[in-house]
Every structure is written in structure tokens, then in C-alpha cells.
Amino acid sequence: MALNSVNTNNGAMVALQSLNRTNSALEATQKRISTGFRVADAKDDGAAFAVAQTVRSQVAGLSAANEQLGGVKGILDTALSSLGKVSDTMTELRTTLVRLADDTLNTEQRAQYEAQYTDLRTKVENFIADATYNGRSLLSTATASGGGDITTVRNENGTTFTLTAVDGASTLVIQDVSSIASAGDAQSALAAGGDWETINTAISDALNTFGSNSKYIDSQISYNNEKVDALNGGLGALVDADLAKESAVLQSLQIRQQLGTQALSIANQAPQSLMSLFR
Questions:
Q1: What is the pLDDT of residue 256?
Q2: Which residue intervals define the domain Flagellin N-terminal in the entry (predicted)?
Q3: Is residue 4 over pLDDT 80?
Q4: What is residue 242's predicted lDDT score, i.e. its pLDDT?
Q5: Per the count of CB atoms within 10 A, which of 71, 118, 166, 167 is most buried?
């Protein structure tokens, strides 16, 4: 191979190859700095990018699950609020029943207490009927009007669990005043196994069940959030760029680029020295 040639400049070719490699590395570094990712797409690292996409889909699924759980939490909290009011009213109803159980009441007094009983019972019915959240209720089994069991997802895999609704209108409302026609009827309602005790027990059971469900949903939402944090941490370790390191690499490559440009310029001028041989 001719060492002195105007057709082939080996020095320039070597300098150009080196400069191209530097420019390519500089472009990759600038991409990492501008995006913040070491792996921004499949071209950077196909395997790592595929794993990252899987993790991102898990995070998206968990976020969606928590949104659904939040809605169910609203339904549960509404039901619990209603049951709390119903329970408080049942205490007032017991007081009224105790008075109605007194056989010494005159007709006017009994009528007043019966009116009070009816008013309190109506309140219970209204509390139950109004226990809706976004059109759904756990205190009704009438699916046509938004009642019935509620099945929802709890994680990114679509695993479900079911909340069982209560037929509040028939199981949580005490008998109407027509069944309390005498002091004896009121005494029977208050006795062990009587209507007041039966209804109050059903209300307590519903409070216990829905309270446990609400606590479970709170725990599931908290767990999902912790899992999202863990997944994002792993994702960051997999694809995030170390910007401090990239900054140092960028400065190094910029210097190499300048030197490579100068080296190529010098190599391109080398054939000019051959001109002196023909003077």
C-alpha cells in the first residue's frame, strides 16, 4: 500500500471512523440526558425495554384497580353511614317501645307515642333508601334500582371479590305501628327474640360485615400503592439514566469530538505536503 498517495488517505479514514464513533456515542448520551432514560425504546436495549413495558402495564393495572376500589369504598362508607343512623334511631325506637309497653297510658298518650314510633320508623326507611353512591347500594337487593351484590377487582390481574348486599327494607326495618296495637305487643317486641331485638341484631351484623369489608378495602388499596412504589423503584433501576454519570460522559465526548474534528482536519491536509515534491 502506498504511504504517500492523494487517492487514499489512511490517516483521514482512521480519523473519520473515530469521529463517527464519538458522534454516535454523543448522540446516545444526549438521548439519555434529554429523555432521562437509559433505555428509552427497544433500540437501546430490547430485553430491558420489554421487561419495562411489562412492569409499566402492571403499574397501570394496579392504578386502575385502586380507582375501582375507591368507588366501592364510597359505596361501603355510604352504607356504613346509613347503618349508623339506623342504629341510633333504633335506640330511640326502643325508648318509644318501652313507653308503649306501659299499660297505664291513656288513649291520647298512646296515640302520641305511636305517632312518634311511626316517625322514627319512617326515618329508618329513609336512611336505608338513601344509602346510594353513584347509583349503587349495599342496603338493597333490588338489582333493577342499583342494589344487589357488588363484585369488583382488587389487583392488576383482575382478581375479584364480592360484597354481599343486605335487603334492608325487609330485614333492617322494624314492624309498623299496626303490630303495636297494645302494651302487650310492645312488650313482645322488646322481649328476647322479639322484633326489636331481631332487627337490631341484623343491623349489628351488617355493621360488622361492612366494617370488615371497608377495612379490607383500605388494606388492599394501601398494599396496591406499596406495590406500585416497589414496581416503580425496580423500573427506575432498570431503565433510568444516571444523569450525574451521563453529564461526565457528555463532557468527555464533547472534548473527544473536538479533538477528532481537529485530527480529521490535520489528516485531510496531509496530501498537501506531497505538492512540495513537484516544485
A1: 85
A2: 6-141
A3: no
A4: 83
A5: 166
160 φ, ψ (degrees, to nearest 5):
-110, 160
Model confidence at 2, in pLDDT bands (50, 70, 90)?
low
Whether 257 and 230 map to the same domain: the answer is: no
The answer to whether residue 10 is domain-embedded is no
276 & 140 share domain: no
d(CA 253, CA 250): 5
Name the residue with cell 318501652.
98
Q: Exposure pattern of 237-263 as b/e (b: 16+ CB <10 Å)? A: ebbebeeeebeebbeebeebeeebeeb
Burial 159-187 (b: 16+ CB within 10 A, else e): eeeebebbbbbebbbbbebeebeebebbb
d(C-alpha 261, C-alpha 239), whole Å:
32
Kindly state whether residues 184 and 56 are assigned to the same domain: yes
Among residues 152, 162, 195, which one has the least CA distance to residue 66?
152
Q: Are residues 98 and 213 in the same domain?
A: yes
